[in-house]
Design brief:
about 250 residues; alpha+beta; six-stranded mixed β-sheet; elongated; transmembrane; membrane; transmembrane helix
Amino acid sequence: MTALPSPFQAPRPALPFAALLAVLCVLLLAGCWVPERYMARVRIEPDGSYTAYAEGTAVHPDTWRAMRRVQAEARSGALKDDALKKAKEEALAPLLKDLEPLRKDKRFDALQSIGDGRVRFSVSGTWKMDRDLLVFSELTTPLAYAVGEDGTLRVRVKDAVHGRGARALGLATEGNLAVTLAEGVEVLEHNAQRVPGSPLGSYRWSIGPGSVEPPYLKLRLPAPPAHEQSAAPTPAPGQQKKLAHH
């Protein structure tokens, strides 16, 4: 993989739904692609905004299965020369079709087929956690979170561990995840394997076939500025916070 750039110095706008669904499979998403190997970095700011960067490889399930069939027929001698070439091209066609519209988006640093149903990618985006929501889990974002009665946030990195899609294809998901917190963000609980050794350090997870529990952090963010607090409407008695869970 290429060296990690500096996406946190100049955050890019959030990626559109179609792009995220197709490529940000490390941070997390389900659907047309299955994460295989990845490296992901997340930085959370005091106001709840965060920047995420990911690079790695993902598998296109239909193309992966089709290529396995082609390879089996080639080993048996059923496909040779031109017939084998044509079968490979037909197997790769769905993957290449799905990549065409994404290659036009300049926010992808890299996006290419590597020939056997896999794609190599690097991509970044910015989002913001809404503390007025009780529970939030959307396909278009890499983090899911729940807000406690005391205002704390339990933040989970979605689809970071070995999932059903990978098991169905006989693949093992392997990842390296680091979450960095800006000054003022307090960690109350976590399941990280390594903790920061300095204020500029990160909470780190190494994901492998035996990983079961998604990476999570329980955070307390600084109170919003006074002008934002006064602008927020006061819930009526018995009124609950909103849910966003799709």
